[in-house]
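debug: dumping io for the single-chain case to check the tokenizer round-trip. Nothing else runs in this session.
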Amino acid sequence: MDEFELEDNLEFILQSIQELIEDQGDNNPFGEVNQNELLANLVNYDQDNLMPDVSAEDVVNGKDVQGIPWEKMLFPRDQYREMKMKGYKNYQNLSYAREDALQDCKQVERDGPYYDFQYNTRRARPSIVHFQHLLQLGGVDALRRTEKSGPRTSDSFGAVFYSLYGCINNMQSKLNQDGKLQLRNLVWATTKHDVYTVHNQSMTHWSSLNQISTELINGDDCIIPKQRGHGSQSVSMVQFTTMAVDNDLLVVGGFHGELICKRLEDDGIVFSTRVTDDENAITNSLEIYQDPNGSRRLVVANNDCSVRIFDTKYFDLLNHYVFPWSVNSVSVNPDGTLFAVLGDHEDGLVVDPKCGKPIGKVRGHLDYSFSSAWHPDGNILATGSQDTTCRLWDIRNLSQSLAVLGGRLGSIRCIKFSSDGRFLATAEPIDFVHIYDCFADYGKAHEIDFFGEIAGLSFSPDTEAFYIGVADQTYGGLMEFKRRHQHHYLNCLW
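debug: decoded output
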């Protein structure tokens, strides 16, 4: 999108806001609220007004899990939810009716909770590279031209923010249609206490045990790798778009095709490069895996229609496969013998990683796909699409999907199975995460409902913890949940 188009759209939004505020009729949700104050708060609210952390004890005492002061807002929570549901429009790349995508969806019983809220920290608040960054690049002047001085209060900001969320989300959808800037895989738990995530231009480690956030990589710096040769080169001003962590290796992808690799036990960066000079080079997906020979590999998917495989010792490029469309997601089955390759096409591919040739197709989605994951048993593949559904496939028979799971609002942007195979978690772009019980044939689910964009989600390897990154400017945070166990027989001990 060109800069002048961005400014035109932003000015249209501001004009609509002003008209809504000035409306003295019954449809004005703001009442007698100062126009200048609302506009100033919309533009100026930033992390200096960071909300406090929220604990499970706070929630027991009646506090919202995100710390939203509903009692001070213009509308109660249920009304905000209703406004969001009505106002949000999911972007479509292809033409179809959403009812067509949802017609085969499985009837799912609300169940759980499978995981109980434990803690919401602001000190590891994840962020997503898209709307705010685009404002800084081209559109912020359009907002500044209408800005007036005025007091900055979180309550009036919250009222404006959520009342206008549908409008802003529509704008975000339009801005993101060409950039893949809504891919959401920026939260990774390596233990139930250790989580890696991205905040602005920093890759950070959060210890829930010590309540400490530590910066590991600063994308604004010039990143100079220790390893020379093998295509290694310095990179700088990196906007992080995706990540993966496995054992001691952290890998991060960037907006301009950057690949950064760090050994967690070492200082500095072991390897960095730009995998392509293509103008459309976003690194969309990363996965570390073990191939059938026992060697560790890294598979990288980029917007230049490519999938690249690197070794994880010297980071040599071993294979480079090109597909007929931009690749948004590559996931590897448990034994490393199959890739699921999804991208800017309604059909997905099952690929042989040794030669890059498709050996099967998954057909059923009505729009582009953005995420996938394999069940630990290796037989079930889950794919998430912009058509707002997650489809399950039995790899032994790909003629039709095993089940279709529908979302509430938008695309399925992130999918994860728990390591024990019990749960499947799917994330929409905003507000909703669904945890399905695989042992109940995906017919029961725990729905987690909040407000804000979702930066990613992750089960801990032992499945005892579950994390959701919420990238909201005001009420964002890293939410921790604890697995609920039904040990009724222990009650007699207390």
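debug: round-trip ok. Residues 3-22 form the longest helix (20 residues).
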